[in-house]
Amino acid sequence: MGQFLNNKEPYDKFKTVMNGTYFVDKSEILEELIPALQQEQRFFCITRPRRFGKTVMANMIAAFFENTGEPSLFEHLHIAEYAGYKEQAGKHDVIYIDFSEMPRECQNYQEYIDRVQNGLVRDIQEAYPELVIENNAAVWDILSLVFNQTGHKFIFVIDEWDAVFHSSFITEKDKKDYLLFLKLLLKGQSYVELAYMTGVLPIAKYSDGSELNMFLEYNMATRVRFSEYFGFSDEEVDMLYQRYLEKTKKPQITRESLREWYDGYHTAAGERLYNPRSVVCALTDNQLSNYWVSSGKYDSIFTYIQYNVDQIQNDLTLMFAGERIPSGIQEYAATAQELKTKEEIYSAMVVYGLLTYDNGMVFIPNKELMEVLKWELVMIKKQKNTPVK
Predict the structure, then answer these.
(1) Domain at 9-218: CATH code
(2) DSSP label at residue 118
(3) What gap in Å lies between CA 380 and CA 376, rounded to an integer?
(4) Scanning 35, 190, 200, 250, which has the fewest C-beta atoms within 10 Å of its C-beta?
(5) What is the dihedral of CA 188, 170, 294, 100, to 10 degrees?
(6) Residue range(s) in the chain whose domain bears CATH number 3.40.50
(7) 10-residue block means of pLDDT along the chain (389 residues)?
(8) Which of 57, 7, 166, 157 is nearest to 102 (CA)?
(9) Measured between alpha carbons, how far is 344 from 338 in angstroms, rounded to an integer?
(10) Which helix (H) or strand (E) holds 262?
């Protein structure tokens, strides 16, 4: 088992989630992915806001397919009822890459991407000692060699595909080089049995948009498919709340308060969803609170309103009062640096989960996000009124 090839960490991480009190079985998504194996349309990019279970899903998919020699975790989950379950579970070579992970004291893009390339080369050399593999060969050439010599294919599970766009040391050239790396690794390659990619941002479009156009993209605001697998439905929260009442000595949370604090995200299918991380944290702690922990500047509304402060502030004031603001949703590119129009700004805020979108309107989905945005706005006003020394 290597650093990326058939790595045991996704298995162990998903097992830990399964053992949790508030685990929700989302394994039915595998029934949609299995038929795509070795088909032309076998590239999926599913984007969701932060804290919506993307990494849990990526770990689950890798844990299901990869051949680690571990006993199956899925015997009692929904996917076990699928006709092709036994033929697929634990029968594939999986390359799992989390692009949010970096080498120690990483200073530039070359160090960042070398960690992935060199790790993959080492893994393949260890897995196929009978093949002559040069250390300095491109990883896609090595994987092609493996396929041509053995017929073996690989499932790629890529988490946090867009993390590179948030790194301070990344230049515009680096971004193009990174997209080229993904294209050469995946596009048109016979060794790719399935590619599942997830992150917050939709795939960036450069020039003619051909770099990663093999991916079918699914976001929460405009695409219906896969909606039910990310976030918690009312019925799922009902189940978890009953579990909470049974296991908590002195329950402090009402079912209605969970709805008020964490519900309200809308999907293109017209469904309302709860933030899964916040619900689990609240039930575990037996306390309603703001569990939206900032993980960087893209969680701050200052990133979005700095070019259009007054208009956005006025709209947010209306949203705080429960109003909805008319707005279209645009395909927000990972490479966008300056968001100047209201549509661009609100599209970005929807992508990051700060707002939600339904039927041509944007709004604040729940009390948790209301608190986050109010606090952010207070900080921005203080910053504007602070004299420059």
Answers:
(1) 3.40.50
(2) H
(3) 6
(4) 250
(5) 40
(6) 9-218
(7) 92 96 97 94 93 94 93 94 94 97 92 96 96 92 97 97 88 92 96 96 61 90 92 97 97 98 93 95 96 63 66 89 90 63 85 90 95 82 61
(8) 166
(9) 9
(10) helix 255-262
The residues, ordered by sequence, that sit 6+ positions from 207 with a Cβ below 8 Å of its Cβ are none
SS3 for 131-142 is CCCCCCCCHHHH
192-199 and 154-159 strand pairing: parallel
Cα 254 from Cα 259, distance rounded (Å): 9
Single out the residue of 323, 322, 285, 306 nearest to residue 377, CA to CA: 306
Q: Look up residue 159 and give its two tokens.
A: 């988490």
The one-letter amino acid at 225: R
Token look-up 């990483």 returns: 106
Contact assessment for residue 52 and residue 231, using Cβ atoms and an 8 Å cutoff:
yes
Give the Cα separation of 228 and 59 in Å (integer).
18
Q: What ranges in 105-209 are assigned the alpha helix state H?
A: 109-127, 139-150, 172-186
Amino acid at site 346? Y
Cα 156 from Cα 66, distance rounded (Å) = 10
Quote the pTM value: 0.93
CA 57 from centre of chain: 8
Residue 188: how many other CB atoms lie within 10 Å: 9
CA distance 57 to 49: 14
DSSP letters for 159-170: ESTTGGGG-TT-
Encoded tokens for 95: 């390359």
* Amino acid residing at 340: K
Nearest CA to 144 out of 82, 186, 92 is that of: 186
Write phi, then psi, for 47 (nearest 5 degrees).
-110, 140
Do 177 and 109 meet the contact criterion of CB atoms below 8 Å apart? yes
Nearest to 74 by CA among 124, 11, 136, 120: 11
d(CA 316, CA 289): 21
Cα distance between the two ends of the chain: 56
> To 5 degrees, how large is the angle CA 222–CA 223–CA 229?
125
Q: How many residues does the chain have?
A: 389
